[in-house]
Amino acid sequence: MTDVSAEPDETPSAAEIIVRDILRGLYEGRYVSGQRLVEPDLIERYGVSRSTVREAIKRLAAQGVVETRHQHGARILNVTREEALNILSIAELLVGLAARQAAEHIDEGDGRKALQDALDYVTEAAAAEDRFTFIQARNRFHRALARIARSRVLEQTLANLHVHLVRNKLVMTPEERATSYRWIADAVFARDPEQAEARARAHVRAMSDKLGQG
Hints:
- The chain contains nine helices and three strands.
- By secondary structure, the protein is mainly α.
- The chain has two domains: 12-76, Arc Repressor Mutant, subunit A, CATH 1.10.10; 81-213, Four Helix Bundle (Hemerythrin (Met), subunit A) (Up-down Bundle), CATH 1.20.120.
- Strands 1-3-2 form a three-stranded antiparallel β-sheet.
- A hairpin with a 3-residue loop joins strand 2 (66-69) and strand 3 (73-76).
- Helix 4 packs antiparallel against helix 7 and helix 4 runs antiparallel to helix 9 (193-213).
- The longest helix has 25 residues, at 81-105.
- The two termini are 35 Å apart.
- 34% of the residues are buried.
């Protein structure tokens, strides 16, 4: 049983912790596509109330991770290889746009520090054995690009996309990804929008190519 908080069945954060653990479980294989999410099992596993479990399932459904049907409960949606490639195609466009606009706004506010911090986090995560930690670092890097770009819509859209990207196992090693992110960051720091977008899109496209060959 996972200890989510001192009073997990009374605090909204308990539901979000369950959501994060299920997303992490998708990556680690503890949860799989098509698996039913049985309320009594989740209540026992996380030590929370039925209402907290239902709130977590509701959030996962809103993010497109699970589907709920009357009298059939909830189950994790299947994502085919074709759908996974489509998700990466969307990511290529969005990350490319974020990088381009970040390069255009990098000298505004604390943009340079924010990007350097995110890049440092990626480098540290690449050295960790826990690859899910690297997924979190990737998300932070993308979020930094969107924030530097001064685009709330882009930041939110990327955040929603991250939920689906977590389903894909890393087809590039963390070290390869860290090197690629440094390449993107160099172009952003150089205030080169075209190069930043090209490198960001090439990074995502490389993942698509490897996934397509798998």
